[in-house]
Q: What sequence folds into this?
């Protein structure tokens, strides 16, 4: 069922547009560094200096020019896109797993003799949702002081499951009253078996749609952390840090801000469009069911 929903979503206009944007970002992440003869942290002072004393613009040696430290912009964009995609996808997998487990268990125990589990889980979700998401992530990132890629993805993964868990809980509660689920329970099926065989497959489509859209939020959150200097430490190339470093020369060299900004925009918009297409396909599937 999930495979069919994914196929229908990608066949839609929004799905194809999102996939095209993500394909461009993936191409930059895979091919960009190979098109440059310099690493992302190598300062090429031999390339020369622009007439105004700043870094050189696009040329044969540096297709997109260099930044304020004479580092190749194309190489840094490629590595920054790789980092953002890796952190966002990995953090989303972690948060989706947490959301699926918490939401399913809470929905299954709601209104039963184990309702205390549901109550405790939902109160925790309510408390954490009362804090602005980016503010919560920034506070954790600042508290950790020194952060690496693993720390960033763990912080994002541990804080990004809240909304999805509530939706999964509602979906599980609806499925619990379906005839085939009640029949499986009446025939002696244990809770783990019924959840694995009948609930999980029907929740998977919802989790998939929400997870794809969540990747966009993860990319934005990671970029904000890097921009505010509470993300991964330099000299690691990240899109948010490239924005921060380029803003000082915005009027003279707008490309230093426009290029990483365009990659962030394409990534967020791409995952958002695919996520919307998946949600529409899932809703259509639910209506037919």
A:
């Amino acid at each position: 069922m999930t495979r069919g929903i994914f196929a229908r979503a990608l066949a839609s206009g929004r799905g194809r547009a999102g996939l095209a944007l993500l394909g461009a970002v993936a191409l930059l992440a895979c091919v960009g560094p190979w098109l440059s003869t310099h690493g992302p942290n190598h300062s090429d002072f031999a390339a020369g200096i622009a007439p105004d004393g700043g870094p050189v613009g696009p040329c044969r040696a540096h297709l997109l020019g260099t930044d304020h430290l004479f580092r190749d912009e194309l190489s840094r964009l490629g590595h920054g896109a790789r980092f953002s995609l890796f952190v966002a996808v990995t953090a989303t997998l972690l948060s989706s797993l947490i959301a699926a487990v918490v939401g399913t268990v809470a929905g299954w125990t709601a209104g039963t003799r184990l309702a205390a589990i549901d109550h405790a889980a939902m109160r925790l979700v309510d408390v954490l949702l009362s804090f602005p998401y980016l503010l919560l992530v920034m506070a954790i990132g600042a508290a950790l002081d020194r952060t690496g890629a693993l720390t960033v993805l763990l912080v994002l993964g541990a804080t990004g499951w809240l909304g999805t868990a509530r939706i999964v809980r509602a979906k599980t509660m609806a499925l619990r009253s379906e005839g085939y689920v009640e029949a499986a329970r009446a025939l002696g099926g244990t809770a783990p078996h019924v959840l694995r065989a009948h609930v999980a497959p029907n929740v998977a489509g919802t989790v998939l749609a929400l997870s794809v859209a969540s990747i966009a939020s993860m990319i934005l959150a990671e970029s904000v952390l890097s921009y505010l200097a509470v993300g991964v430490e330099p000299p690691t190339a990240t899109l948010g840090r490239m924005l921060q470093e380029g803003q000082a020369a915005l009027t003279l060299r707008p490309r230093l801000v426009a290029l990483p900004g365009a990659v962030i925009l394409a990534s967020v918009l791409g995952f958002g469009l695919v996520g919307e297409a998946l949600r529409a396909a899932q809703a259509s599937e639910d209506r037919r069911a």
